[in-house]
Design a protein that fits this description.
With 94 residues, the protein is mainly α. The longest helix is centred in the middle third of the chain and has 34 residues.
Length: 94
C-alpha cells in the first residue's frame, strides 16, 4: 500500500528523522501506527471499565457519598496509593 502525506505531516516526519531518533520515514510511520493501536486498545479497555461501572451502579452496587464522605474516600485512596508507592520504592531493583 502506498499513500501520500499532507505537506505539513511530511515536513514533521522529515524533522523527526533529522533528529536521528529514527533512521527513516517508514520507521516514524510504523511507530505512529503502533502508538495509535496502543491508544485504541487503551480506549477500548476504558470503555469496558466504564460499562462495567455503570452496570454495577444499575445493580445497586454503588455507594453514595456526601462531601465529607467523598473527602474521606479520596484521602483513603491517596494514603493507600502513597503506601504502595513507598513499598515499591523500598524493594530492591531487579
Amino acid at each position: 500500500m502506498s499513500t501520500s502525506l499532507p505537506p505539513e505531516i511530511q515536513q514533521y516526519v522529515e524533522q523527526v528523522v533529522a533528529t536521528g531518533r529514527y533512521e527513516s520515514a517508514e520507521q516514524v510511520v510504523r511507530e505512529a501506527f503502533r502508538l495509535l493501536q496502543e491508544q485504541d486498545r487503551a480506549f477500548a479497555s476504558l470503555q469496558t471499565d466504564v460499562k462495567k461501572g455503570f452496570d454495577q451502579l444499575e445493580r445497586g452496587e454503588g455507594i453514595e457519598l456526601d462531601d465529607q464522605g467523598l473527602r474521606e474516600f479520596f484521602d483513603d485512596v491517596q494514603a493507600r496509593g502513597k503506601g504502595r508507592y513507598e513499598a515499591a520504592n523500598l524493594l530492591p531493583m531487579a
